[in-house]
Amino acid sequence: MRGSTLDKIEGIGDKRRAELLRHFGSIENIRQASEQELTRVLPRNAAQAVYDFFHKED
Hints:
By secondary structure, the chain is mainly α. The protein has 4 helices and no strands. The chain has a single domain (5-55), classed as 5' to 3' exonuclease, C-terminal subdomain (DNA polymerase, domain 1). The N and C termini lie far apart (29 Å).
């Protein structure tokens, strides 16, 4: 299996990755989702980790 960008996020395993992709359809849609939208699929702490991963300052 090919690696996913989501594999780099702490707290996101196979099950949560599958749930995110099923709900949002693509990594780009996940990247564009608000933290509130992510909490519809994930617990708050996991949603925050995903949001922070894609929106961290470089």
